[in-house]
């Protein structure tokens, strides 16, 4: 059984492919993209798109009427075997309603199989009493990726879905600029995928031009020239950049960012 222990994204991904559906899921952790991803997978599995308006409801913690949620959970679905309710920004639920929710879960049994509730905490973590009540009958999942190696694997897997491979240099550049924000990473990966079309290998230049335009590539060439002590090409490159549409402060900021990335690379390789 999965109750009684914490789950992560990989566990939840596997769970969505299994037949068993739980009456309640509690999602928290800093990776909002992953929470939304699993929520959508559960929604697509449980609710026929033709009857989604009848059997799928989203509530928000700040404007929540917990009695309305509970009544909805106890109401049979229409023209469907299942219904799904989602509470977003659950950290904004007031204490009184949170207590009602905990009491409801403590009374709930696994026999009611037609309704499922997903509770999503966007910014903070739920209290222990709520976690305990939900773990008795449902699933509690912490969506956080703190391991850089796992994050790199996740990025590679997204490109693999389009039958593409990202080089280590391109991967490092992408992670250095975007960081660990999976939502932004997903958007940038989509942009790179569209830009590279049928190209199978994603190079550093592809990432640079997608995220920073041709100016980013020109700046990298300037820095390459500086590194090679090729003063003529470095100056020519700076002149071309200055003749472009970029403000000189923007050019300085992009050069500073490139130098910072080079220093980070050297520290990692040291």
Explain the overall architecture.
It is a single chain. The protein has 270 residues and is an alpha/beta fold. It folds into 2 domains: 6-142, Rossmann fold (3-Layer(aba) Sandwich), CATH 3.40.50; 148-269, no CATH class. It is built from 12 helices and 8 strands. It has helices at residues 9-15, 32-46, 52-55, 66-73, 95-107, 128-137, 148-160, 168-178, 182-196, 204-227, 231-243, 248-269, and strands at 6-7, 24-28, 56-60, 83-88, 115-120, 139-142, 165-166, 201-202. The strands form 2 sheets. It has a 6-stranded parallel sheet with strand order 1-6-2-5-4-3, sandwiched between helices. Strand 3, helix 4 and strand 4 form a beta-alpha-beta unit. The protein is elongated and about 75 Å long. The model has no long low-confidence stretch (mean pLDDT 84).
Write a concise synopsis of the structure shown.
The protein has 270 residues and is of the alpha/beta class.
Topology:
Blueprint: E1 6-7, H1 9-15, E2 24-28, H2 32-46, H3 52-55, E3 56-60, H4 66-73, E4 83-88, H5 95-107, E5 115-120, H6 128-137, E6 139-142, H7 148-160, E7 165-166, H8 168-178, H9 182-196, E8 201-202, H10 204-227, H11 231-243, H12 248-269
Write out key terms for the chains shown.
single chain, 270 residues, alpha/beta, Rossmann fold, 2 domains, 12 helices
What best-fitting shape do the alpha-carbon axes yield?
Answer: elongated
Q: How many domains, as an integer? A: 2
Q: Which CATH first-tier class of the largest domain would you pick? A: Alpha Beta
CATH superfamily name of the largest domain? P-loop containing nucleotide triphosphate hydrolases
Q: Which structural class matches the secondary elements?
A: alpha/beta
Distance between the termini: 46 Å
Largest sheet: 6 strands, parallel
Radius of gyration: 24 Å
Q: What is the CATH architecture annotation of the largest domain?
A: 3-Layer(aba) Sandwich
Low-confidence stretches: none
Helicity level, as a percent range? Answer: 55-70%
Record field, number of beta strands: 8
Q: Report strand order across the widest sheet.
A: 1-6-2-5-4-3
């Amino acid at each position: 059984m999965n109750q009684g222990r914490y789950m992560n994204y990989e566990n939840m991904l596997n769970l969505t492919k299994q037949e068993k559906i739980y009456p309640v899921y509690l999602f928290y952790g800093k990776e909002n993209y992953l929470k939304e991803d699993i929520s959508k997978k559960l929604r697509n599995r449980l609710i026929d798109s033709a009857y989604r308006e009848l059997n799928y409801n989203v509530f928000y913690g700040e404007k929540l009427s917990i009695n309305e949620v509970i009544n909805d959970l106890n109401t049979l679905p229409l023209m469907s075997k299942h219904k799904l309710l989602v509470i977003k920004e659950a950290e904004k639920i007031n204490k009184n309603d949170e207590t009602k929710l905990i009491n409801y879960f403590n009374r709930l049994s696994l026999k009611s199989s037609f309704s499922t509730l997903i509770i999503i905490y966007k910014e903070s973590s739920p209290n222990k009493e709520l976690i305990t009540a939900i773990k008795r009958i449902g699933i509690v999942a912490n969506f956080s990726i703190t391991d850089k190696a796992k994050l790199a694997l996740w990025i590679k897997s997204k490109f693999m879905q389009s039958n593409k491979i990202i080089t280590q240099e391109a991967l490092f550049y992408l992670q250095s600029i975007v960081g660990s924000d999976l939502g932004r990473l997903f958007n940038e990966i989509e942009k790179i995928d569209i830009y590279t079309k049928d190209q199978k290998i994603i190079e550093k230049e592809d990432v640079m031009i997608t995220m920073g335009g041709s100016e980013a590539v020109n700046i990298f060439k300037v820095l390459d020239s500086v590194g090679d002590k090729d003063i003529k090409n470095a100056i020519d490159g700076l002149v071309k950049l200055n003749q472009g549409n970029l403000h000189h402060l923007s050019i300085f900021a992009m050069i500073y960012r490139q130098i910072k990335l080079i220093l980070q690379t050297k520290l990692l390789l040291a």
